[in-house]
Write a structure and sequence with these properties.
By secondary structure, the protein is mainly α. It folds into 2 domains: 3-60 and 164-256, no CATH class; 66-158, no CATH class. 59% of the residues lie in helices and 2% in strands. The protein has 11 helices and 2 strands; from the N terminus they run H-H-E-H-H-H-H-H-H-E-H-H-H. Strands 1-2 form a two-stranded antiparallel ribbon. Helix 1 (13-41) runs antiparallel to helix 11 (229-256). The longest helix has 29 residues, at 13-41.
Amino acid sequence: MDHEQIRLRNFCPAVRFGLTCLLITILGGYASSFLHMVDHHSKRDEQPGLSLTDLRGAYHGVRVIAPMVTALEMNHPEELDMEGANPLHPEDRQTLLRWLNSDRISEDYDNLDLGDAAPAEILAINCLNCHSRQATLGEGVGERIPLDYWDDVRSISFSREINPTSVEILTTSTHTHALTMGVLTVVICGLLLATSFPRILVHGSIFLIGAGLLADLGAQWLARLWEPFIWLILVGGGVYGGLASLALVAVMIDLWLPRGVFCRPHSPQS
């Protein structure tokens, strides 16, 4: 049989059903891999959800500045111009910043030896009128960012270094993913070639799928040296994952389309 005549929809129903089951299984694997990636990386900055900071930390490394430090350096709360908000005295602001940049954040939070200069006292006087669960100011900011207790304060007080994945782990990951995903992608592309969809769509999709996978895996190494390559990971991974999933769906559709749809007349070779 000439290779141009090989079409998935020409197989018997049993084979087409079996292939459909396999393709659904692979799609489930892709979905599981995505969820695993989100869960694996989303905990790096100790904040809910997957963020760019998580990815920067995973592939390049990043220092995460404590949210309270950022707020104080941005002159909070003076920039709010909100009635009822107490202005923070410059000396108190510097006291809080020195505390947040020290290695005694936990120990000095409510240190009795510090008296009125203890961070807990400064926060109680200047911040709890908005940042309390019982506060009526700030349009619910007390519920979103409460500072009533040490556990509340602790969650936004610590700056941290997020180190990238070690070279040993990245090597193992590349070894595993390059081989398994490479072979799987060859199978997907081979099945896509056996569909009856227009060749320009098929060939263009295969080009982008291959380029996306290379960009995703290769940029993980480059991003260790140059942070902007993280965007190439996102773009390459998105293109690869999206088009590979669409290719699987397209193959399943083609398996069950009537034989005349998209088919071109076959010109025998001499």
